[in-house]
Amino acid sequence: MTEIYDLHCHSTASDGALSPSQLVQRASEHGVTTLALTDHDTLKGLSEAQIMADALGIQLIPGIELSASWEKKCLHIVGLGIDPQHPALIDGIKQQQQIRIDRATKIAEKLAKKRIEGVFEAVCATAGSDMVTRLHFAQYLLQQEYVTSLQDAFDKYLGQGKSAYVSTRWATLEQTVSWITASGGIAVLAHPLRYKLTSSWLKRALTAFKQVGGRGIEVVTGQSSIDDIQRSLQLAKRFDLLASQGSDFHNPDNPWVELGRLAPMPAGIKSVWKADPLAATLN
Ligand code: AMP
Ligand code: MN
Ligand code: MN
Ligand code: MN
After folding, report:
1. Quick one: angle between helices 119-127 and 134-143, nearest 10?
2. Beta bridge partners of 221
3. Ligand 1: which atom is nearest the Cα of residue 168?
4. Do 68 and 93 meet the contact criterion of CB atoms below 8 Å apart?
5. Residue 176 and residue 87: Cα distance in Å, rounded?
6. What atom in ligand 1 is closest to the CA of residue 74?
7. CA 106, 161, 150: angle at the middle one, nearest 5?
8. Predicted pLDDT at 130
9. Structural domains of the chain in order of their starting residue, each with its CATH number
10. Can you tell me whether residue 163 is helix, strand or coil?
11. CA of 154 to the centre of ligand 1 (A)
């Protein structure tokens, strides 16, 4: 049987459309043999996902995607093979959750100034006890017809520098990587080409990431072009990082991204799933 690894995706525990069990089911239907659930700043979906993974015989890697501040920029750090019971990780996540709630309040205040009222209550109602993300805001704006698409919501209101953008101080790169590492996981820089960093800034970021113990980088994502993969591969080689791959699946309605649908990983680079401590937990 061919092994298919998808090490980055989201459930309703953060901004995904499918419940953890629906997500695992869909991954299995699309041939995924090893899946990492990596919700934004939460571990909440993992236990439900594990039950379905056991039932369907697919391997689940406990994961997370942490937002990290570095040089006033926000980087996304995926943790793979973390221990969801680890106190340092749990405490860290609590801080991130408070930051998300504070930020959501401020985003709603900015939208209220644009005569878009009651958004905080609305997004909290949809997110429930799950993580509130900007995608929840975008979905609300779309549903209420303030915008014509999710992209439009980011372009008009939520994107960096737009009228309802709130610059946020997340945990530091050092903190996020240390929580992941302390809990037995491998820290991976998610989607390196999506930060709109110049090549020299990206290299600085990777230097900093390595310095604090980062070990991997996503080389193949659900939306990578051949060119993107080559660029990310060169970065992986230059910084001696393990290569990861993941779709970053959020929603079955997006035809461009599907669970397990990834371009092949180029040869000549070590994959993150072949490195310990992660490899030791897989069969
Ligand atoms: P947050 O972590 O709360 O800042 O939310 C970021 C999330 O918003 C990302 O993980 C994506 O799921 C989503 N997102 C960001 N930019 C866009 C976009 N242009 N269109 C649709 N979704 C987006
Ligand atoms: Mn997201
Ligand atoms: Mn991300
Ligand atoms: Mn993601």
Report:
1. 110
2. 246
3. 4
4. no
5. 13
6. 4
7. 80
8. 87
9. 5-74+186-282 (3.20.20.140)
10. coil
11. 8
Query: Which amino acid residue places its CA nearest to atom 13 of ligand 1?
Result: 135
Amino acid at 119: V
Atom of ligand 1 nearest to the CA of 103: 3
Tell me the per-residue pLDDT of 85-125, one tens digit each, with 9 for 90 and over. Answer: 999 999 999 999 999 999 999 999 999 999 999 999 999 99
The residue whose CA is least distant from atom 9 of ligand 1 is: 135
Cα(277) to centroid(ligand 1), Å: 30
Contact 188, 209 (CB under 8 A): no
- Tell the burial category of 172 from Cβ atoms under 10 Å away from its Cβ (0-12, 13-18, 19+): middle
Q: pLDDT confidence of 197, banded at 50, 70, 90?
A: very high
Taking the C-alpha atoms of residue 28 and residue 35, their distance in angstroms, rounded to an integer, is 9
The encoded tokens of residue 35 equal: 């899946």
Three-state SS at 89:
helix
Ligand 1 is surrounded, with C-beta below 6 A, by 15, 40, 67, 133-135, 138, 150-151, 154, 250
| Position 178, amino acid | S
Q: Atom 19 in ligand 1: which residue has the minimum CA distance?
A: 151
- C-alpha to C-alpha distance for 142 and 150, rounded to whole angstroms: 7
**Residues contacting residue 143 through CB under 8 Å, at least 6 positions apart:** none
Write phi, then psi, for 218 (nearest 5 degrees).
Answer: -75, 120
Q: Which of 19, 31, 32, 253 is nearest to 8 (CA)?
A: 32
What is the C-alpha separation between 254 and 135, in angstroms, rounded? 14
Answer yes or no: are the C-beta atoms of 40 and 110 closer than 8 Å. no
